Amino acid sequence: MTGYFITLEGIDGSGKTTHLGFLKEMLSSIGFRVVLTREPGGTALGEKIREILLDPSTRGMDPMTEVLLYNAARSQLVKEVIQPALQRGLVVLSERFADSTIAYQGYGLGLPVDIVRSVNGVACNGVYPDLTLLFDLDVEIARARILKKVPDRVECRDVDYYRRVREGYLTIAGEETHRVKIIDASQAIEEVRRRATQAVLDFVRVHSPSRSKERDDSPSS
Fold first, then answer.
1. pLDDT 10s digits, 80-124
2. Rg of the chain taking only CA atoms, in angstroms
């Protein structure tokens, strides 16, 4: 039995983390076993790479070095966590995956997107999301959220950078409408949650109709 791989994407401050746990609870309630993970990170090695990538004191990193470090963490995550979970029939919910590298280092930093995709491909080892929720939000609103805390190395980048990243995400969504579902993250949190839940349930109804019926029949649904 093969599981499902669902990713949450979007610029920093768009609300991905907020909805990750809720989606896990919802899927668990209708009979799925769910693994949560994140990028960069998700493994002991990946978390060490995450520290390097996001540490504000890390200076002078070349854009291609970023791509290689993100993909080093990704390769470990795929081999250690994602592939084994999918082979066991679990649902993997990940905050970020390869789309982030295309948007942030490709469109954001100006690296050739085809080269970024090629490097991603090696690290992904044939594993790609079945469904991606893109939490889309105006850059200025997202930046205001970020600046309420101490920003990491990437979050310190300027508004123009994040505009390019957002446009990159929207380009990906336009190219892969069958996989990427845009969630308007400017709405109230309850509405964003409803739309995210609906997108996942729509996917489940197609691929696991018996399990989705459990939620439809539930008094709390």
1. 999 999 999 999 999 999 999 999 999 999 999 999 999 999 999
2. 17
State percent of the chain over pLDDT 90: 91
Do 40 and 53 contact (CB within 8 A), yes or no?
yes
In our burial notation (b when 16+ CB lie closer than 10 A, e otherwise), range 20-54 reads beebbebbeebebebbebbbbbbbeebeebbeebe
Greater confidence, 213 or 47?
Answer: 47
d(CA 149, CA 2): 39
Element (H, E) at 16: helix 16-29
DSSP string, 52-82: HHH-TT-----HHHHHHHHHHHHHHHIIIII
Residue 22 near residue 29 (C-beta atoms within 8 A): no
pTM attached to this predicted model: 0.93
CA distance 221 to 203: 17
In the structure, what pLDDT confidence band is assigned to residue 70 with cuts at 50, 70 and 90?
A: very high
Amino acid at 119: V
Task: Please compute, for residue 125, the number of CA atoms within 13 A of its CA located in the half-sphere on the CB side.
Answer: 15
Strands 34-38 and 180-184: unpaired
Domains in the chain, CATH or no CATH each: 4-215 (3.40.50.300)
